[in-house]
Design goal:
The chain is of the alpha/beta class. The protein has a domain at 122-295: Glutathione S-transferase Yfyf (Class Pi), Chain A, domain 2. It is 42% helix and 24% strand. It contains eleven helices and 15 strands. The chain has helices spanning 37-49, 106-110, 123-127, 130-144, 151-168, 178-215, 233-243, 245-251, 272-275, 278-300, 317-328, and strands spanning 2-11, 14-19, 25-30, 68-77, 80-89, 95-98, 101-102, 115-118, 219-224, 262-267, 270-271, 305-309, 333-338, 350-355, 358-361. The strands form three sheets. A six-stranded antiparallel sheet has the order 2-1-4-5-6-7, with helices on one face. Strand 1 and strand 2 form a beta hairpin. The chain is globular. The model has no long low-confidence stretch (mean pLDDT 95).
């Protein structure tokens, strides 16, 4: 899978940028902080994600003074060319077309093109609370199976309704409708557990190997479900609900299910969240994203586009060299950003210089 060309208009600080990435190899975007290199990478990934990892609303994505921003690009996939055109609005819904036809659901685009993005915003997956790791697992599920993008939201709606029932209960016995909501919780929760277990199983070994290649020792990556994923999951779910029934009635909240899952990450037999160094945290986060890319390639039969924002600025020279070599050895297109020429790896096959939202191609 290749991005043949990309165009940004009034996107972040890019008034008008149009570029043709190299067909394959390591493309390096160079620019000091604040010049627009991260914005460029964000725009490239927007063609797949249709959202930003750095902003929940669209308004920050539009250049100051403009009412809309535009991102356009054409992908070459195994099944043919895919033209993606997105209008990003400061007010109202964004408009997206794929091959000149409107797209209303992200899954319709994600079935056709795949991109994996890494950046400093990934560090809380390692250091943050369990919700960040649940979010990573759900992103991985969607990357592998785009049609599963509603599994978690459907489950969370059931949790909210069940919590409302518990909060409004007068405290005498159990709510009459609780068994009905229990079964909906089991049904939707089981789907989430199965999907997360499959996704983590698909990327765990690759993440551990990528970490080992850079750090010299493995990263433990293990799904830690609140309800056991071994054996009959619905029966495990019902049994756990029965065990916690009194606690749920007392606390008036749902205490069982994948909304209480975690992803276990450890280095040298110690939990990464509390004991990993900053460098280990950085490599662990990058290794997880590269493992997602490997899993996507295995699932669809072609490598996704890999985009890494400042992938090794926090690393010592030895680890930088290992990361650069690993990125350069990946199949397909790999795009990374660095802040200084001294950080450009020797394996670079194309270099873009970014300054004040303008880009020049070297050579």
């Amino acid at each position: 899978m290749l991005l043949r060309w990309v165009e940004l208009r009034d996107f972040r600080n890019h008034a008008h940028t149009k570029l043709k990435p190299i067909p394959e190899g390591l493309l390096v975007v160079v620019g000091a902080n604040g010049e627009g290199k991260t914005n460029l990478l964000e725009g490239m990934h927007f063609l797949y994600a249709l959202q930003s990892p750095r902003a929940s609303a669209s308004e920050p994505l539009v250049r100051h003074g403009a009412s809309s921003g535009f991102v356009r690009g054409e992908f070459q996939t195994r099944d043919g060319k895919v033209l993606v055109e997105a209008e990003v609005k400061t007010k109202g819904a964004n408009k997206v077309q794929v091959n000149r036809s409107p797209v209303r659901r992200r899954r319709d685009l994600r079935k056709q093109v795949r991109s994996v993005l890494f950046g400093p915003f990934d560090l809380p997956v390692i250091t943050g609370d369990p919700s960040r790791r649940r979010g990573f697992m759900d992103e991985s599920v969607v990357a592998l199976v785009p049609a599963s993008d509603t599994l978690t939201s459907t489950y969370e709606k059931v949790v909210r309704q069940r919590n409302r029932l518990l909060k409004e209960h007068d405290g005498r016995g159990a709510p009459r409708d609780l068994p009905t909501w229990d079964e909906q919780l089991v049904e939707t929760g089981t789907a989430v557990i199965e999907a997360r277990a499959a996704a983590v199983g698909a990327l765990a070994d690759a993440a551990s190997a990528a970490f080992d290649d850079v750090a010299g020792y493995p990263l433990v990556v293990r799904y830690a479900p609140n309800v056991s994923a071994e054996g009959d999951i619905p029966e495990n779910f019902r049994a756990h609900l029965a065990e916690r029934r009194a606690d749920e009635l007392q606390r008036r909240a749902s205490l069982v299910g994948p909304h209480r899952d975690d992803l276990e990450l450890a280095v040298r037999d110690l939990g990464a969240r509390g004991f990993a160094s900053h460098g280990e945290t950085w490599v662990a986060a990058l290794s997880l994203r590269l493992a997602v890319a490997d899993a996507v390639e295995a699932a669809i039969g072609e490598p996704p586009i890999v985009i890494a924002d400042d992938p090794y600025s926090a690393l010592d020279p030895s680890r930088r060299d290992h990361v650069a070599a690993r990125l350069a050895a990946r199949p397909g297109q790999v795009v990374i950003s660095v802040a200084d020429d001294a950080d450009v790896p020797k394996q670079a096959t194309q270099i873009w210089d970014v300054r004040a939202g303008s880009v020049k191609v070297r050579g």
